[in-house]
Specification:
Number of helices: 9
Shape: elongated
Strand order of the largest sheet: 15-14-16-17-23-22-21-19
Radius of gyration: 40 Å
Helix content: 10-25%
Strand content: 25-35%
Largest sheet: 8 strands, mixed
Number of strands: 32
C-alpha cells in the first residue's frame, strides 16, 4: 500500500516515445493487476511457509503410557520365552518398548533396565531414539527367574537421578507377564504403570525330578503341574543317556499336580548316568497337524537328573606291627560310610611297606611318612613321633579340659567328657587351623599344604578315652569328609538357573574345567576355600572335570555331573497377571491410553529443506 500511494507530478510533453520506461513503472504500481507467474517466488513462499509452520511446533495427540522422562523395566525371566504371542512374549515386549520410544516427548530421557538374574542397564537417561532402539539389540530373555528387588533398586535410582537433574518426575513402566513377587518389593518414586504381556495360562511343567538309590538300581520320582484352566494329557518319556527307556500317558487336572514314580530302573553301567524326562503332546501330529505343540512354554517340558554311584575312598592305615595294630582306628574306618580301608603289612625285613598303588587317604598311627617320598593322597597323622611337615617336641601331661574351636570340622563335637593323659608338643604351621586346644598345647589341627590335605592328632588314642566317647565317630566323620570327600560338590537334586555351586576338589587337582550344556568351557583354578561357580544360567547337564598333573589325553580326567532345571512355579505359571504389587500398592494393568503430544516440526522442516534444494537447483 505504501508503494501504491505514490503521487507523481503531471507534466505535459511533446511525445511519450522517450517516456516508455516511466509508463512501465506506473503499470507496475497499478493496483488490482494479475500476479505474474514466477516459479522461484512460489518456491520461496513455500520455504517461508514451512519455516513459519515449523516454528509453530505443530503436534497431534497420540496414545502413550507415559509422558516426560521414562524408566522401563523389561522382564527377561524364563516365562517371557512363551510363544502364545507371536513370535514370543519377549519379542512383543521389545515392540512395546520401541512404541514408547517412538512416542517419547521431545527432550524427554529414557532409562531401560533389563530385569534378569542380574539386572542390566541397557540405556541410561538417553534422549536419542536411535540410541535407545540400538540398545535393545543386545536384550534377550533368560532361562531362570529375575531378581526383581535388584531391578527395582536400579529403577528407583534412575527415577531419583531424573528428579535431581531438574526433569519432571519419571514414569516407571513395567513391561512383564506379571511374574513378580506378591510381596516384598520396595516402592518406586513417581508414577508406576504396568503393561501386561501374554494371552494364555496353558502350560504343563515338570516341577520336580529326583533319583534315589534302591537296591541295585535307582528309583525316579517326578511331578507334573498343570498351570492351565483345563485338564490336560501328555506323554511322559524317560531317557537314560539319550536312549528311550519308557513312555506313558499321564493326565493332570486343571491347576493340580500329578506324580510319576518309576522303580526298578537298571543299575547304571557307568559311575554317572544322566536321566532326562520329557513331556510331549498326546495328540497324533498326523491326525491333527499343527496341534502337536504341547504348550506355550517349552523350557519346563524337559528336566534332567544325574545318578552318581557313591564313591568309596581308598584308605591305607600304616601302624607299627609291634603295636599289634590300632583297634580303634580300624573300627572307625570300617564303620564310616564311603571308605574302603586297607592296612599296610610289614615286608620281609619287618619294616612297613607303602604299596605303589595310590590311595585317597594315608593314616599314619605312631609313625611318620618319609618327607622325601610323601604319598600322593591326603594325610591323617595320629601321634606323630618325629618332625615331618611341622615341628614335634616332647610330650606333655594334661590335667585340664580342652577347648573346641568353632570350625566346620568340629561341628557337633562335644569334648567336655574327653580326657587325654599326654600329648606331644607340636608347633602348628601357618597353613593349618587349630581345632582342639588345651592350655598346654594343641590336640587337633588340620589344613592344606602344597595341594595335600592334612589332619593331625597330637596324642595316642590309647592315652585317652576319646574312642569311648561319642565325639570320636563324629570327629572322624568330619575329618574323613574333609580328607576324602565323597564328591566335590553337593547337588543331588540339581540346581535352579542362576544358583551358585561351591566345588571342593581333591588336593591334587590343579584345574577344574566345567562344560556347560551348550559346550562352553569354564576353566577355574582351585582355591583354599573351594571354587564358587555361578555361570548356571542355562538349563541342562554340566560336566565338572578335575585336571591333575598326571592328566593326559590317554588318561582322561575324573568328572562329575550336575543338572540345572526350571523348577520355578512362578515362571511356569505363565498366566498374565491382571495386577502387580509395588510396595504396599496394587498396580493394575493399563493399556496405552494416556494422551501425549507427537510433534510434527521435524517433518515440516524436512519438507522446507527439500524445497530449498529444489529452488537452489532451479
Amino acid at each position: 500500500l505504501y508503494m501504491l500511494k505514490l503521487r507523481r507530478r503531471r507534466v505535459e510533453v511533446s511525445s511519450t516515445m522517450l517516456w516508455q520506461a516511466l509508463l512501465r513503472d506506473r503499470q507496475a504500481n497499478a493496483p488490482w493487476q494479475k500476479l505474474k507467474r514466477n516459479l522461484l517466488l512460489l518456491l520461496q513462499l513455500l520455504i517461508l511457509a514451512a519455516l513459519v509452520i515449523g516454528l509453530a511446533r505443530p503436534a497431534v495427540p497420540v496414545a502413550s503410557v507415559s509422558s516426560g522422562s521414562v524408566v522401563i523395566l523389561l522382564d527377561a525371566s524364563a516365562s517371557m520365552n512363551a510363544n502364545d504371542v507371536s513370535p514370543s512374549r519377549f519379542a512383543a515386549a521389545l515392540e512395546a518398548v520401541q512404541q514408547i520410544i517412538r512416542n517419547l516427548e521431545s527432550g524427554a530421557r529414557m532409562t531401560i533396565i533389563l530385569a534378569g538374574k542380574q539386572p542390566l542397564v541397557l540405556a541410561s537417561a538417553e534422549s536419542d531414539p536411535n540410541a535407545l532402539v540400538q540398545s535393545l539389540r543386545s536384550a534377550a530373555p533368560s532361562q531362570g527367574a529375575s531378581d526383581w528387588n535388584a531391578a527395582f533398586a536400579l529403577a528407583a535410582g534412575a527415577a531419583a537421578s531424573a528428579a535431581s537433574a531438574g526433569q519432571t518426575a519419571a514414569t516407571v513402566v513395567i513391561i512383564s507377564d506379571g511374574g513378580l513377587p506378591a510381596q516384598g518389593l520396595p516402592p518406586l518414586p513417581g508414577e508406576v504403570r504396568y503393561m501386561p504381556i501374554g494371552t494364555t495360562s496353558d502350560n504343563l511343567a515338570i516341577s520336580a525330578l529326583a533319583l534315589r538309590q534302591a537296591g541295585n538300581g535307582a528309583e525316579l520320582f517326578a511331578s507334573v503341574t498343570n498351570q492351565g484352566d483345563a485338564e490336560r494329557s501328555a506323554i511322559f518319556s524317560l531317557y537314560i543317556n539319550n536312549e528311550l527307556l519308557s513312555a506313558q500317558q499321564i493326565s493332570a487336572p486343571a491347576g493340580e499336580q500329578t506324580t510319576v514314580t518309576i522303580g526298578g530302573l537298571p543299575a547304571p553301567a557307568a559311575s554317572e548316568t544322566i536321566y532326562q524326562a520329557r513331556l510331549t503332546s498326546a495328540v497324533n501330529p498326523q491326525e491333527n497337524p499343527g496341534q502337536n505343540q504341547l504348550d506355550a512354554l517349552a523350557l519346563d517340558d524337559m528336566a534332567f537328573a544325574v545318578y552318581q554311584t557313591p564313591r568309596q575312598g581308598r584308605t591305607l592305615l600304616v601302624t607299627p606291627s609291634e603295636a599289634g595294630g590300632n583297634f580303634f582306628l580300624e573300627q572307625v574306618l570300617t564303620a564310616l560310610p564311603g571308605i574302603t580301608p586297607y592296612r599296610a603289612l610289614p615286608g620281609e625285613n619287618g619294616s612297613l611297606q607303602i604299596p605303589a598303588a595310590p590311595f585317597d587317604l594315608y593314616v599314619f598311627d605312631n609313625t611318620a611318612p618319609n618327607l622325601e617320598s610323601l604319598p600322593p593322597g591326603s594325610l591323617l597323622l595320629v601321634n606323630p613321633p618325629t618332625s615331618t611337615l611341622f615341628t614335634v617336641g616332647a610330650t606333655f601331661a594334661m590335667s585340664d579340659t580342652a577347648q573346641v574351636i568353632e570350625h566346620p570340622l568340629t561341628r557337633y563335637v562335644d569334648w567336655s567328657n574327653v580326657h587325654v593323659a599326654q600329648a606331644r608338643q607340636v608347633e602348628v604351621p601357618a597353613w593349618a587351623d587349630t581345632l582342639v586346644r588345651a592350655s598346654s598345647g594343641v590336640l587337633v589341627f588340620a589344613g592344606e599344604h602344597e595341594g595335600r590335605r592334612i589332619a593331625v592328632l597330637t596324642f595316642d588314642l590309647h592315652q585317652s578315652d576319646l574312642p569311648l566317647q561319642v565325639a570320636f565317630p563324629i570327629l572322624f566323620s568330619n575329618l574323613m569328609g574333609y580328607l576324602i570327600p565323597a564328591q566335590a560338590f553337593d547337588a543331588p537334586d540339581g540346581l535352579l538357573p542362576g544358583q551358585s555351586l561351591r566345588i571342593l576338589p581333591q588336593a591334587d587337582v590343579t584345574q577344574v574345567a566345567i562344560a556347560s550344556p551348550d559346550g562352553q568351557v569354564y576353566s577355574l583354578p582351585p582355591a583354599e576355600d573351594g571354587i564358587l561357580f555361578t555361570n548356571t544360567d542355562e538349563l541342562g547337564v554340566y560336566a565338572v572335570n578335575y585336571l591333575t598333573a598326571n592328566t593326559t589325553q590317554d588318561d582322561p580326567p575324573d568328572a562329575d555331573f550336575f543338572a540345572v532345571n526350571l523348577f520355578e512355579p512362578r515362571e511356569s505359571d505363565i498366566r498374565p497377571a491382571p495386577a502387580i504389587y509395588v510396595g504396599q500398592s496394587s498396580v493394575a494393568a493399563s493399556a496405552q491410553d494416556q494422551v501425549s503430544q507427537h510433534e510434527l516440526w521435524p517433518w515440516v522442516a524436512g519438507i522446507g529443506l527439500i524445497i530449498l534444494m529444489l529452488e537452489w537447483w532451479i
